[in-house]
Amino acid sequence: MKNPNELHQNPNELHQNPNELHKNPNELHKNPNELHKNPNELHQLLSERFGEEHFEFHQDEKAEPWIVVSAGILKDVAKYLRDEPGLEFDTLMCLSGVHYHKEEQLGVTYHLDSTSMKHKLILKVLMPQEDARLPSVEQIWKAADWHEREAYDMFGIRFEGHPDHRRILCPDDWEGYPLRKDYQVQPYYQGMKVEY
Amino acid sequence: MKNPEITLEPPVDAGDGLVAQQMVVNMGPQHPSTHGVLRVELTLDGEVVVKAVPHIGYLHRCFEKHCEQMNDYTKVVPYVDRMDYVAAMNNELGFAIAMERLMGIEVNDRVEYIRVIMAELQRIASHLLAVGTFGLDIGAFTPFLYCFIEREKILDIFEKASGARLLYNYIWIGGLMNDVPDDFRSDTADFVKSFRPKITELNDLLTENKIFVERTANVGVLPAKVALNYAASGPMLRGSGVKWDLRRDDPYSIYDRFEFDIPVGTGEKGTLGDCWDRYIVRVREMEESLRIIEQALDGMPDEGDVQEAIPKKIRPPAGEIYCRTETPRGELGFYIISDKSTSPYRVKARAPSFVNLALLPAISIGSMVADMVAIIGSIDIVLGEVDR
Fold first, then answer.
1. What's the CA gap between B188 and B118, in Å, rounded?
2. Distance from B371 to chain A by nearest Cα, in Å?
C-alpha cells in the first residue's frame, strides 16, 4: 500500500504524459492576428507535407470551408496540426459523428481551434456505413475521449486505439445506434417496453 | 447487464497480522453532492482516490434525435432550455445565434440589448446557484440561502418578461417571444444596485472563510496545459489562469460594445487552478456581468419591434455551421447541418459541462475522498446538459 503522502506529492507530476507539448498560458495571447492562417493555406501546407491525394478541399458560399482527410493518415495529420510551430491547434472544440444516409456513409467532423494563433480548421473523415472505423485522436487531444465514445454510442463508429471504448450515454447492452437515420428502437429493454 | 471488470491490486500485508486492500465505492447516482444523477466509481486506497470513473447517461433523452424529428426549428428552442436548465437563457441565445448566422438574419439593436441583459442576468443567477451549492457541499449552509434570495429576484424579472421562472422559451430565432414589460428597465436597475453590496457580503461569509479556504485551496489542481488539451472552457479554464472568454475572443451578438474584464485564477490562496480559484472566478464574473448590464441598460434603445426579423417559415439554406457562445459553464457550441428542410439534418450540442466533466478523473487522482465533493462542486456541472 502506498503512503498517502507520496500520492499527494506534486499534482503537476500526475499530468505529465499527454500534454507536454502545450505552451505556457502567459504566452497565449502574445501573437497578434497577423500570423493566423486561413483554411486554404492550411490545405496547401497539409498537401505539401502528406501528399495531395489524401486531402479534398471543400468550399462553397453556404458554409465554412472544410478539408476531407483520408482516415489512414488522420493521426499523423492531427499530430502535425497540434505540434507544428505556426499551426498549434491546441484545442479540439468539437467532434461530431454524422450519418450521410443517401451516400451510405458515416462521417466524423473535427472542429479545431488554436487559442494562440487564433485560427480554426474543420476536418472531416468519411467512411463506408458497413465498416466505419478510424484511428482515435484521444492521444493527441484528450478532449476527444468522451466525444469519441459518444460518436460510437450514437453512430457505431469505431475509434481504433481508444483506451476506453465503451458506450457513454446509453446503457452498455443497448441495441443499435440511435442517431443513425435508419435506426429502429428495440421493442423491449430488459423486459421493459421501450416505446411510450 | 454486463458489468465492466474491476481490477484491484492484490492485498498487502500491513503488519500486525492486518491485511490492507483497495476498495471500490460508488458515489451517486443519488448523492446530494453530485448535483443530479452522476455516478462516480471510486477506487480507494485507504482514504486516497487512486481511480475515478464517471458514469453518465442517467438523464439521456437524445435531444439530438428529437431535433431531427421535430419538423420545425422553432420547436427546438424549448428543448435547448432543458439542456442546461439553470441557464436556459444562455442556451437559447446560443441556438438563436447559430440559426441566425446560418440563415443570414440580422436582428435590431433593441433585441440585441435585451438579449445581452437577459444572458448576463442569467449568468449571475447561474453563478449564484453554483457558488451557493458549492458552499453547501462542503458544509457552509448559510451562504446558500443568501444566494438564493438574490437568485429569486432575477427569476422574478424573467417571470415578468416571459411568464416562466426556469425554462423560458423567450429568445427566439430572429427575435424574442415578446417585448419586455414597461418596468423591466427599473426592475433591472434596482437589482443591479441592490446586488453589488451583496457580493461583498458573500465574500465576508464564504470567500474569506477560513474553513472554506482550507477545504478548497490546493484541492483538485488543474494545470492550464491540461485544461486546454481537454478543451475545458468557462470558469474551469479561467480558474487555471488562461484568459479565454468567447465574449471577447470570438465575439458574438454585441459584446464588442461593452467594457468588461475577464477574471482569471491567480493561485491567491494556494496553487493556481485549484477549487478556490475556480470559485473566485465565478464570484468576480458576477461583478463583471453587473458592469455589462449597466452599460446595456444605458445603451438600450426604447424603440424597435422585437419580432420584426422572425421568419414566417424557418427553412435555412443547405449548409452547415458550428457556432459557439459563452454560457456560465463555458463554451456551448451548436453544430447544425441543414438539408434545406424544415428540421435540421443533424444537430450536435457541444455542452460545456460534458467536456468539463471529462476532466474529473484527471484532477481527482491522489486527492482524499472527502475532497471529491469539493472537486465535483467546483466543476459546476448540470447533468441535463451532460446527458442531453
1. 10
2. 12
What does the alpha-carbon distance between residue A154 and residue B114 come to, in Å, rounded to a whole number? 37
pLDDT at A186: 85
The minimum CA-CA distance between A184 and chain B, rounded to whole Å, is 12
Cα distance between residue B366 and residue A14, in whole Å: 9
**Of A147, A66, A82, A67, nearest in space to A115 by CA:** A82
| Contact at CB, B229 and A145, closer than 8 angstroms | no
The enclosing domain of A97 has a CATH number of 3.30.460.80
Which chain A residues touch B245 with a CB distance below 8 Å?
none
Residue B29 lies in a domain: no
Answer for the pair B254, B301: CB distance below 8 angstroms, yes or no.
no
What percent helix, strand, coil does chain B show, rounded to 5?
Answer: 45, 15, 40
CB neighbour class for B234 (10 Å; exposed up to 12, middle 13-18, buried from 19): buried
Flag if A7 and B20 touch (Cβ within 8 Å): no
**DSSP alpha helices (H): ranges in A108-165?**
144-155
Task: Specify the 3-state DSSP secondary structure of B201.
Answer: helix
Examine residue A87 and state whether it is found in any structural domain, yes or no.
yes
Q: Is residue B65 part of a domain?
A: no
Report if residue A8 sits inside a domain: no
**Mean pLDDT of all residues belonging to chain A:** 78
Total count of domains within chain B = 1
Closest approach of A176 to chain B, Cα-based (Å): 14
The verdict on a CB contact (< 8 Å) between A25 and B224 is: yes
- Stretches where chain B sits below pLDDT 50 are 1-2
CB contact under 8 A, B231 and A141: yes
Residue B82, domain member (yes or no) = yes
> Is A127 within the bounds of a domain?
yes
Is A93 in contact with B358 (Cβ distance < 8 A)?
A: no
- pTM (two decimals): 0.84
Residue B251 maps to a domain: yes
Instruction: Tell me the C-alpha distance between A153 and A149, whole Å.
Output: 6
- Residue-level pLDDT at B281: 92
A15-43: average pLDDT:
55
State how far the alpha carbon of B223 is from the alpha carbons of B249, B265, B266, in Å: 21, 11, 12
Give the pLDDT confidence score for residue A23 in this predicted structure: 44
Number of domains within chain A: 1
Q: How far apart are CA B24 and CA B347, in angstroms?
A: 38
Closest to A67 (Cα-Cα) out of A95, A94, A47 = A47
DSSP secondary structure, B208-223, as one string: T-HHHHHHHTTSS---
Sign of CA dihedral B152, B157, B158, B160: positive
Domain assignment of residue B162, given as a range: 74-386
Structural domain contains residue A172: no
What is the CATH classification number for the domain harbouring B161?
1.10.645.10
pLDDT recorded at residue B4: 56
Is the ipTM reported for this complex over the cut 0.85?
A: no
